[in-house]
Design goal:
The complex is a heterodimer.
Chain A (H helix, E strand, L loop, with lengths): L4 E8 L4 H4 L5 H18 L5 E11 L3 E4 L5 E4 L10 E4 L4 H13 L4 E4 L8 H10 L7 E7 L4 H17 L3 E7 L21 H15 L3 H6 L1 H8 L9 H8 L7 E10 L2 E9 L30 H13 L21 E2 L14 E4 L2 E4 L29 H19 L6 E8 L2 H14 L7 E6 L9 E8 L3
Parallel strand pairs in A: 1-8, 2-7, 2-8, 3-6, 14-15
Antiparallel strand pairs in A: 1-10, 4-5, 9-10, 11-12, 12-13, 13-16, 14-16
Helix pairs in contact in A: 3-5, 5-9, 11-12
Chain B lengths: L2 E6 L2 E6 L16 E7 L4 H7 L13 H14 L6 E11 L3 E4 L3 E7 L8 E7 L2 H13 L4 E4 L8 H10 L7 E7 L1 H4 L2 H22 L2 E6 L26 H15 L3 H15 L7 H8 L8 E8 L2 E8 L10
Parallel strand pairs in B: 3-10, 4-9, 4-10, 5-8
Antiparallel strand pairs in B: 1-2, 3-12, 6-7, 11-12
Helix pairs in contact in B: 3-6, 6-9, 7-8
Chain lengths: 477, 328
Amino acid sequence: MSDGEIIGSYIVPVHPHTYLVPEKNPGWTKLREAFDEAALRIKNSEADLLIIYSTTWPSIIGHQIQADPNPEWVMVDHDFHDLGSIPYSFNIDSEFANAWNEANHMRGLKSRTINYYGFPIDVGSVVALKLLNPDNAIPAVIVSSNVYANRSETSVMAKACLDVVRNTGRKAIAITAMSLSNRMFTENIDPADDKIHSLKDDEWNCKILELMEKGRLEDVGQLSRTIQKQIRVRKVVAFKPMWWLSAMNDNRNDLTGEVLAYEAIHGAGAAVIHLDPASCGTGDKEYDEDDVEYFYGDRSVLDSNDSETTTIDEEVEEIDETISTEENGPALWEPTTADGSVNSDSAPKPVGAYPHARRVGDLLYLSGVGPRQALTNSIPGGPIHDEDGEPLDYDIKAQTQAVIDNIASILEEAGSSLDQIIDVTTFLVDMKRDFQGYNEVWAETLGKIGPTRTTLAIRALPTPIAVEMKVIAQFFD
Amino acid sequence: MSLSLGVFNSKIIALAESDKDPNPLRHDMAKGKIVAGCIAPHPPHLVYAENPDQNEPTSEGGWEQLRWGYERLRESLSEIEHDVIVILSPHWQTYVGTHFLGLENFQSLSVDPVFPNLFRYHYDLNIDVELAKQIHDNAEKAGLAVKMMENPDFRVDYGTITTGHLFNPKWDKPLVVISSNRSTDYYSAEVMQEMMIELGRITRETIEESGKKAVILASNSLSHRHFTTESEIPEDMSKEHIASHAMHLWDMRIIDYIRSGQTQRILDEMPEFIEQAIAESDGGGLSWLISALDTPDYPAILHGYGTIIGTGNAVVEWPCYKHEEGSQ
């Protein structure tokens, strides 16, 4: 099956007022009416799946996906418990949830499904499902918001979801349960006195709504960090849902947007927004943050040389041999083949127009060799920074060993071997941190062979690696 | 008429002495007191590792240093007579003031939303509603935003359950459960601390008025940077360590203050601690505890220290009863 697609997106507020007491404030009534209108549109659409990203379900170990086919309980809000209780019984598409979880793993993400009796479904998801899907006619799936996830992780998680939507032919509605400005009044208020907490919050909310009405979802996504700073109390989860929703819509800026309602709930900015995938005809992107396909962020915090990393990379490679290398540096090139060139399928592809090695007389001159792996482009020991340039912990020993293994592959291709190496020039990006580890691996390998060696500190290498070696070896026919 | 002034949430509350509604019995009954104050962390991992009947998942143990620390704490407290346990839990997060559980009994299933694989606990706990309401009322008079939680469908947060179990597995003492007001997020650590110091003072004075002997708990860890991945066997202790050296240094700094009776320095450095160690004391528990203990200058007992998925956790007891006037 194929041709699945996102047939609509909605942004809805998280607080329970719209479900429990809409009549107590005219604004809450308008929000409830907007919810009802959105529910009607969804009912009249071809939707066969609702996908909810909720900011009120934080997670720590990657993302969590609800997979209990029929979660039931009575939800009471931690803050607004005096408004009443919300019994729920939902229809969850556990098959889709499991497929999404697998797709996440294939794209390098940590995630897991949740299927436990009594699991507390968060207030944002409960309100969204109760109001948008009141008769449970359409199955749903809910995903958490990871407190540590950055843009790339959040976007890749959406793309993994899209993989499943498309592969299973679903007609899906994407929903983010979220506030715009999230600053609430910190005291109890009379419902009649509710309003947006401050003029600044209101102005920013209107700016977001203006972009939404023009269908400029990716622009809002790229403003997420600014929005977080301007009108968001830190709370647990930052303003991430626009990253997810934009990626669910192929990072488009030409959707057809409609704000069904915008009001305050206890001071926070609450809006019901409908984004239709039909193009509104405009939509150049004003910003150009990288589009990320696979997640390479730090997930091996328990063990920097975790074998699981290799497994994930292998899976990714199986899915798509054209792994994006943009996060790990420049595009890869086929090695050049001028006379005397030696190239190996077991060595990482060059990042420019050059061969792996070149033979001149009885000498072999190798291009600089790093630790990247030939097939997956992964870096044993981990990259030294993420795609945002944020430093990561990495294992210099693992990287150094991988460099030497790659050198061995090239020499073997040429008919030579490690014990024929005459001279090595090593480049380290962090001499202070890495010299000792690098030196230990050297001593156990090339040190026992005895080539001359020069070690230099340099500012950076083209890919996020810590070590590279330039080698001259002998060659005997 | 003398006035006491409190300034919170842009309000100026002027309280006439006649409005303080002193308990007419207070001079007739024995003065209540806080007999011990504790830092008692709440990761569900510790309950999971203990394999109590109430928890559905089973484990092969793990995190023994902290669990043994809790054992020592329980042993120590078993020698101290007390009527009630007062907990401030950072996992009941409230943004509209500070809330208090306000029904006599709560029974339900607590499933940790972050670690449901480890914690699905059937709880049955009793609340000292009278004391909770007294603290609530006195806090309200002082200008703090407060609310009693009286919805019978409410599920008690897993932090309270975890701490409650580890602290008193028999559940034979009533609790007062106080929510964590997120004023650090809304304003700053300084504002949070000002409010929690006030709430701590009110808690202490209300306990004294009540005639009850109370143990008070700040249910929080120290440094709070989690790992973002979990080992295949959660209790695999070969994978457990502090998230970073910086977190370790902060934990040891705070523990040094705890062990040397320098609680004022903890308060002084709290904003930096919260920011740099992502400390869970941003929820106010530690500031509230220190204030409720009247900023003790005597050493606390460190019963245990250990890490849980990278976070730093200490089990600490301030044995107040040993430092009362006239005690030996």
